[in-house]
Automatic annotation (TrEMBL):
InterPro entries membership: SHOCT (IPR018649)
SHOCT domain residues: 33-58
Source species, domain of life: Bacteria
TM region positions: 6-23
Protein name, per record: SHOCT domain-containing protein
Keywords per UniProt: Membrane, Transmembrane, Transmembrane helix
Length: 60
């Protein structure tokens, strides 16, 4: 009986560890792309014109 409890705890721990990777609680990919675009603009990697053009494309 003690062995079964160890197996149950092991399964629970493995399940809790892999849960975020199997079911990510993220925004949808469209919002994620906008987040990346905002980060790139904030870092100065793209110009204002490039930012506005890409944002318009993503939002359409």
């Amino acid at each position: 009986m003690h062995f079964i409890w160890w197996i149950i705890w092991l399964v629970i721990l493995i399940w809790l560890f892999f849960l975020p990777y199997r079911f990510p609680f993220r925004k949808n990919s469209k919002n994620r792309a906008l987040d990346i675009l905002n980060e790139r603009f904030a870092k100065g990697e793209i110009t204002k014109e490039e930012y506005e053009e890409r944002r318009r494309i993503l939002e359409s």
